Amino acid sequence: MSDTLENLEKRLKTLEDERDIARLIASYGPLVDSGDPDAVAALWAVDGGYDTGDWQMSSRADVAAMVRSEQHQGLIARGCCHFFGPPAVTVDGDRAVAICQSMLLVRREARGFAVARAGVHLLHLQRNESGWEIVSRTARQLDGSGQAIELIEAGFAR
């Protein structure tokens, strides 16, 4: 009986971790679209990295600076939506890997949005005393170059 209870507790903890990580990833879009640099940066470890392919960030301060940048603020002023699909999460104790896809929708005209970018994100996360945080996030566009496919393969390599 105790083996069964232990097994159920372990399974419940894994499900809670997966849910918490999915919530963290899902919060990025609304936070970055609202232009809240401190809330976006708080998703990362203090020395966490974010590699978009065009932009290399290596700390919370760098992530906050990206949100404050003219380039990002211009997207917000025009109208944009960073939309993320559900992540596939693999939890291993206090570490996890997640892979998901995203689209950046940008307002192009008075009545519509256009897909500006479609990509893949590979995230490495760690648990700290207050919950999960991003240690590294790598994003690549689904542009046929193969770089996004490499991230997908890495995300599912268990």
UniProtKB/TrEMBL annotation:
One Pfam family here: SnoaL_4
Superkingdom per UniProt: Bacteria
Annotated ranges, domain SnoaL-like: 14-138
Protein name in the entry: Nuclear transport factor 2 family protein
Source organism phylogeny: Bacteria, Bacillati, Actinomycetota, Actinomycetes, Mycobacteriales
